Amino acid sequence: MAGNGDHRPSQTDGALAMLRSRIIDLTLRPGSRIDEPLLISQFQLGRTPAREAINRLAAEGFVTIQPNRGGTFVRALDLAEIGDIVVAQQLVENVLGQQCRLDDPALADDLAEIQRDYAEQVRTRNHLLITEVNERFHLRLHRTVGNSFFYAFAESTHRHARRLNVYLYQLEAQLAAQQDREFEINLEEHERIITAVAERDHDTLRALLPEHARGTQRRLVRLLSEHAVEKFGVDVFLDPLLEDALKGTTPRA
Description:
With about 250 residues, this protein is mainly alpha-helical. It has helices at about 10-25, 35-40, 45-60, 80-100, 105-125, 125-140, 150-170, 175-200, 200-215, 215-225, 240-245, and strands at about 65, 70-75, 230, 250. It has eleven helices and four strands, in the order αααββαααααααβαβ.
């Protein structure tokens, strides 16, 4: 019999983690229908874990339940969604730069260990694991803030940013040299963050984190300006730099 300390994931936990990963890595495409029969037949889930996983994915914002369309659908990844993710990601990292506490004696060592894993995933170009370890790096910093409400927002934001980054990496894969350099920049910025944490240099960290968060926007702007995506005839209001790049385009995802 399992003891009180046995925290093995339930069937629903396993189903949720698997489905979330398939949404993040774009195996389950934005806008595609997802329902119990599909999960039972394609992913060999039981009916109850499938239903509960869908409800939890809806709570996390990865799927939308639309009775008028007769089902549940993977959240879109369109122009408006991209803009919202970019803004939210920059917001949480700006606040982190101001609120991060550097009195945690294990923080620098923990970040350095995660960075080693991150460098390995970058080397293998496993997009899902790159985003997973990157999320772990940033959430380790967010835990120091000690605000459960802000942490929940940051966790949700980074999870949705992972899906955008997978899409971004897929586009960049067509430009191998450019992607190599972009990952080098990311690794270098992580190292600078670790150094600032180790030296308890809050002023430097306060500047580094917002600049690092702008990396996704910068990479998107560069790709979109080079016509790496197809035409899309919708106008929305965004940050002017991102709006200029996104106007008239849409992801293939």
